[in-house]
Design brief:
With 171 residues, the chain is mainly beta. It contains no helices and 25 strands. The strands form five sheets. It has a nine-stranded parallel sheet, with no helix packed on it. The radius of gyration is 16 Å and the shape is globular. The mean pLDDT is 88.
Amino acid sequence: NTTVNSGGGLGISGGASATSTTINSGGFEAIFSGGTDIDAMIGGAEFVSSGGAVSNATVNSGGLLELFGGAITSGTNTVNAGGTLEIGSGFTISGFVVSSGVTLEIASGGITSDTIVESGGTLNIFYGGTADNTTNNGGAVIDNSSNAPTSHTVSSGETYVVAAGQIDDGD
């Protein structure tokens, strides 16, 4: 069991593994190819690169889990209210439910599809990110991407923002 406090960092790679790591606010963990973390509690930031693996992580308020292309996820990874899941370049997520207080960020090169944004949840699509077939049940969808989405379903109470200079085609 390892605790990473503010200003600290932990790197895991090459066949190494960690279990029940606690990453506090201001601390970070980077999981590289061959590295694995199981049952992490994330209040700071955890970055999972290609070939790195995360299982049963819990992202708490103020925490960030970022998944890059080739990252391996397993088990049940949970994002609690106040937490953020970021989909980095090359990673695709499908069917994620953005519950109240949760933020899903799609960075440049990241892809999400069939996302459901519940009331109080936020989907933030950065420039170059892609979100296809999004259903918004009263949360916020902020589209700063240059990519026209395949479709957004507009529900009662939805906030859907298309940033200046961007185009929403066909919704």
